[in-house]
Specification:
Blueprint (H helix, E strand, L loop, with lengths): L15 H22 L16 H7 L2 H31 L5 H11 L1 H4 L2 H14 L6 H25 L3 H9 L4 H30 L2 H6 L7 H11 L3 H30 L3
């Protein structure tokens, strides 16, 4: 194991440790508070009045929350499948582009990550108006697909670039056709990247608020929009419950992605 040079050790940078600890506390302590107060038995979100599961029971039986969750799940599922399919097609076509075209196309397709969401929301709303559509379910699916595509693409592209070219060269030497190589070698080897990209795209779609706000209509309220509406009316422990469930989903996706990444690194590519 390589040792860290003495000049790069953390104790040679005074203040970095305490600042790092403060940042971790600032980021994660509020999450712990939200989780703890989701079990509050009182009617106030931040006034502890005893342990209870009453708000979990209310959330799981609240028709409005269930409807908003179902809407978010439907949009996220369709957008995830569409973005992953498009990402796989793009990654498989990269070899047909020259180096400059590959770089330009990658930068353009990854733009939604760096462009402010409010700009994307306004632009998407203007575009669907121009083509004669109105805000609703399918415009929201299209917007989420475009927004989730870069997140799926990055994982799949990273996996593809890590593959050993010898696999494809050996298949070609043995007489395999291009379609056979794609279906029997490339796609199975890309599976870890596809799964991790799909998980990340799904979470991004479920969590999106800004773009959904611009494209939502009556009957297409997503869970983040509904949560924001609850907060405006007055915070109660049901908001903590929903936030806790979303946090658990994010943790599950993170663990799954980490597991796939470790498994991927442990296999030869």
């Amino acid at each position: 194991m390589n040792k860290i040079p003495a000049r790069l050790r953390l104790n040679h940078f005074p203040g970095v440790g305490p600042i790092g600890v403060f940042c971790l506390i600032f980021l994660y302590f509020p999450m712990a508070i939200v989780v703890a107060y989701s079990f509050n038995g009182g009617n106030q979100a931040l006034a502890w009045q005893g342990f209870s599961l009453r708000w979990y029971d209310r959330v799981f039986h609240d028709a409005a929350i269930i409807s908003a969750t179902r809407m978010s799940l439907e949009i996220a599922a369709i957008a995830t499948v569409a973005s992953v399919v498009l990402a796989v097609l793009y990654v498989l076509s990269m070899d047909r582009l020259n180096r400059a075209g590959n770089a330009v196309s990658g930068a353009i397709l990854a733009a939604p990550i760096v462009v402010p969401e409010v700009v994307l929301g306004v632009a998407t709303l203007s575009f669907i108006r121009m083509i004669g559509m109105t805000p609703g379910f399918w415009p929201m699916v299209l917007a989420h697909t475009c927004f989730c595509f870069p997140f799926a693409m990055m994982n799949i592209r990273a996996r593809y670039q890590s593959l050993n070219p010898a696999y494809f060269e050996s298949a070609a030497d043995l007489g395999a056709t291009g379609s056979a190589v794609t279906w029997r070698i490339t796609l199975p080897l890309l599976t870890p990247g596809i799964v991790s990209g799909a998980l990340l795209a799904f979470v991004v779609s479920m969590d999106d608020y800004m773009i959904s706000t611009f494209l939502a209509s009556a009957g297409t309220t997503t869970l983040p929009i509904y949560i924001f509406g609850l907060i405006r009316k007055g915070v109660n422990p049901s908001v903590n419950v929903v936030a806790t469930l979303l946090l658990l989903m994010a943790i599950a996706v993170t663990v799954a992605t980490s597991f796939l990444s470790r498994r991927q690194q442990g296999k030869p590519a």
